[in-house]
Amino acid sequence: MASAPMDMTIIQGDCIETMAGLPAKSVDLIFADPPYNLQLGGDLLRPEGSTVDAVDDAWDKFDSLGAYDQFTRAWLTEARRILKDDGGLWVIGSYHNIFRVGAALQDAGFWILNDIVWRKTNPMPNFKGTRFTNAHETLIWCAKSEKARYKFNYHAMKALNDDLQMRSDWSIPLCTGAEREKVNGRKAHPTQKPEELLYRVLLACSEPGDMVLDPFLGSGTTGAVAKRLGRRFIGIEREEAYIAVAERRIAASRQVEMDALEISRGRRAEARVPFGALLETGLITPGTPLMDLKRRWRAQVRADGSIALGKEAGSIHKIGARAQNAPSCNGWTFWHTETAGKLQPIDMLRERYRTEHLSA
Amino acid sequence: MASAPMDMTIIQGDCIETMAGLPAKSVDLIFADPPYNLQLGGDLLRPEGSTVDAVDDAWDKFDSLGAYDQFTRAWLTEARRILKDDGGLWVIGSYHNIFRVGAALQDAGFWILNDIVWRKTNPMPNFKGTRFTNAHETLIWCAKSEKARYKFNYHAMKALNDDLQMRSDWSIPLCTGAEREKVNGRKAHPTQKPEELLYRVLLACSEPGDMVLDPFLGSGTTGAVAKRLGRRFIGIEREEAYIAVAERRIAASRQVEMDALEISRGRRAEARVPFGALLETGLITPGTPLMDLKRRWRAQVRADGSIALGKEAGSIHKIGARAQNAPSCNGWTFWHTETAGKLQPIDMLRERYRTEHLSA
DNA sequence: ATCTTAGCTGAATCGTGCA
DNA sequence: TTGCACGATTCAGCTAAGA
After folding, report:
1. Are strands B27-32 and B211-214 parallel, antiparallel or unpaired?
2. CA pair distance A154, A166, nearest whole angstrom
3. B306 to A102: CB separation less than 8 angstroms, yes or no
4. pLDDT of residue A88
5. Domain B8-40+53-261 has CATH 3.40.50.720
C-alpha cells in the first residue's frame, strides 16, 4: 500500500502545453493513445489556433493530413523532451493514424523496437460486408534513439506467457462488461482500453516506482493499472467529464502488495561470480578435468582460475570458444565436471557459491 | 522474357522505369513487396553459436529515411497512374518501413481500406532476449481514392473462413519446406512469401481474367498464384537470378478448376490461456496464495504470472513439479485457491477466463 | 517399414560493464 | 570514446539420419 496520493496526478489541460511545463528527462515511460479520427475538424486545430477549413475534397484531405501531422510532431517533441534517456514510448492507433504517427516518431529520432498487434478476440463485425473485419489495433514501442538503452523485463514477459517468449501479437478482449466505465448507464468514454493491455505494457517496460505519463488520459486505464502495479503516474486530459471518470476509477484501484510485484529477473541480474572464486573457496580444485557434454574436449583447471586445453590456456569462456572454433561461448554451461560417471555443468558450482557465500 | 501463356509476363528492369512504360489505368490489382530497409547491424548469433542468415542484399540498402521515402513516392506515383480507377493496391512490410509506406500512400491520395496482420505461426525467435518476438508483418490494402469503388469478394472470404467474416489478422506459416524455392540447395530468395498469403489476397480482391501486377517480383509467388487462380499477370524484377527462379516456378504452376478451391483452414484448437492472462484481467491478483489439494505446499502468485515457493520461482507447472519432486506437473489442476475455507483448482479460473473473455 | 532424435532454419533494425 | 572480457540467449516445423 505504498502509493501515496501524491504519486498519482491528473492535470486538466492541453497535452502539449501541459507537457511543456514538465521538467526535461523526468519520465520513465509514456503511453499515448492520441485521437485518430481525421474527420473531426473541430478536434484538429492548427498550432496558431485556427480551425481546419474545408475548401474542396482533395485540398481538405491534404490539409487534414498535414494538420494531423503537425499535431503529432508537436506532442512527440514535448514527449521526447520530458522522457529520460533510457525511457520508453508507446503509442496506440489504428490504420487511420498509426502510419503517420510511426513515420513522425522515426523522423523525430525515436527508434522503433517493436510494433505490437492488439488482436481483439471479440471485435465488432463489419456490418456492411465491404471489408475485412477490423479486428486489431497497432501499438508502437520505441526507445529514445538508436543507441539508447531501454527497459524490457524479458523474463517477466516470458513468465506471463507460460515460459514462451512473448510475441508481437497479443490476443486480448475488448473492454466490456463490469470493467467498462459507465455514466448514467452509457459508456463513459468511446475508446476505453482494456486493463489487460496496459498491464502488459507497464509490466514489460517499467518497474515499481517509475514515473509513467499518459498525455491522453481519457477514462484513465493507464492510471488505474499504474497504481495497481506501484508505478507513479501523471495523466493529462482536456475534458472535465473524462477527468471525473478517471479520478474515481484510479481512486478505486488498489495497489498489489509490494512483494507480489517481484518479477522474474533472469541471470543478468544475478551477482557475477568469477570462476576463480570457486577455487578460492575450494568448490573446485586445481587439476580438476573439465569436459563438454559430449566429452569431445577435455581441459584442466589451473590454480589461477584459467583452464588449459592442449597448449592453450585462458578463461573458461575463451577456451570453450576456441575448442568449438566459435566466436563466443558461455563456459559456465559448456564445461562439466564428472562425478561417479555423471557430468554436471560447472554452472551448478556457481549456483552453490551464490547460495553458500552470497545469500546473506 | 515472357513465359508460356501470353498473359503471364515477366519484365526485367527497374520497377519505376518499367511501370512508366505501361499504359495508364490498365491494371486491376497491384501487389507490392518493396525492400524493407532493415538497417541490420553486425552478425547475429543463435544461442547454440550458428549465425543467422540475414538479409544483407544491396537492394535493401538505402542511404537514409529520406532516400527511402523518395523511392517509395516514386514507385507509388507510377503504380497510381497505371492502376484502374476501381483497382486495388496491396503493400507488405514490417515496422522498419511500413509506417513510411502507409503515410506516403495516404499522401498520394490512396484510401486505406484495411491494414492486415500476417501473424506468423512459426517466426524466428528473438535470440538475445531483448525485445518481443517479431512475429508478424503488416499489409496495407487500399483503393485509389476515398470515393473509388473497389473489388472485394466478401463471400469468398467468408467461405474461406468457415462462414465467419474474414478478420484483419491472418495466421499463416512462413514459407518453408518443399514450397521454398532452392538453388543449389540454398534458398533462392531471402524473403519468399508463402503462397497461402497471396492466394488470399488475390482471391479477395480480383477475379479471373483480371490483370495483376507485382513490381517487386522476387521469387515469383504472386505470379505463381495468379496463374493458379486464372489471373493475367505482369511481374517486374531487376535481378536476373530471381527472374530465372520465377520463370521456372510460374511455368510449373497449374491453374486450378475454380470449384476446387483450397479448403479453408479450420478454426484453431481451443485457445491456450497463459496463466498470466488471469492476472492481467484481475481474475487472480498478485500475492494470492496457492496450495495443493492436501495443503502440503503453499506458493504465492507474482505480478508476472510466475509463482514463488520458498526461494524458487517459476511457472505454475514448473513449481508444481519442483514441489513434488516430479518430472512434470499440470499446474492448472495441481494448484488451488482458497475461498471461505474451500479449495478450488485454478483451472476453474481458466474456465471463467474462456467464457468471459474468449466466448464471442 | 515405423518411430525417435538430432540438426537446421526463418525479412532480425538482438548486450553490458568496466578499464 | 573505445576496446575488451564476461557470458546471456530460441520456437516451430521440416528433414535426414539413426534406432
Report:
1. parallel
2. 8
3. no
4. 98
5. no
